[in-house]
């Protein structure tokens, strides 16, 4: 990012250290659990193929307040490749962010905020799966910085 794209307010905030970040609220925006093969699925051996889809989005709520939503969709399939359960959680958060340059704001909204939300989403998914009478599902940690960088590189114009 060139110096010309940085506003005077961002320059001042960066120089005097007045950049601000605060978590305002964490909440579940939406959640669902489906087990279309119940109760038949409980009679066989449990060796599922589990797939996780991960998405995040953000929007400006008002000056300096951003909503970030991390969506996890988990699909478990049985030996017959039929869905045993499907769960989706949209974990939301409201973040107060001010005084960041455009690139730093994008990194914060696209990587840092989702990494703050992930443990809450992971716990919500695990809770839904257990309440469905399935074994606990502890999702592995996710490197949101790497995902953000990959997405940023994919969006960058290809130069030949």
Give an overview in words:
This protein is α+β, with helices and mostly antiparallel strands and 160 residues long. The protein has a single domain (23-153), classed as SecB-like (Bacterial Protein-export protein SecB), CATH 3.10.420. The protein is 32% helix and 36% strand. The chain has a 4-stranded antiparallel sheet with strand order 1-4-3-2. Strand 3 (65-77) and strand 4 (83-98) form a beta hairpin. Helix 2 (102-131) crosses helix 3 (144-155). The radius of gyration is 20 Å and the shape is elongated. The two termini are 21 Å apart.
Number of strands: 4
Overall pLDDT metric: 89
What's the number of helices?
3
Q: Please report the first level of CATH classification, the CATH class.
A: Alpha Beta
Return Rg in Å.
20 Å
Q: Which regions are unreliable across 5 or more consecutive residues at pLDDT < 50?
A: 1-7
- How are the strands of the biggest sheet laid out side by side? 1-4-3-2
Summing up helix and strand content along with how strands pair, one would put the structural category as: alpha+beta
Q: What is the CATH architecture descriptor?
A: Roll
Largest sheet: 4 strands, antiparallel
Question: Which of globular, elongated, flat, extended, rod-shaped describes the shape?
Answer: elongated
CATH topology term: Bacterial Protein-export protein SecB
Q: Could you state the order of secondary-structure elements as H and E?
A: HEEEEHH
Percent in helix: 25-40%
Count of structural domains? 1
Distance between the termini: 21 Å
| Percent range for β-strand residues | 35-45%
CATH superfamily: SecB-like
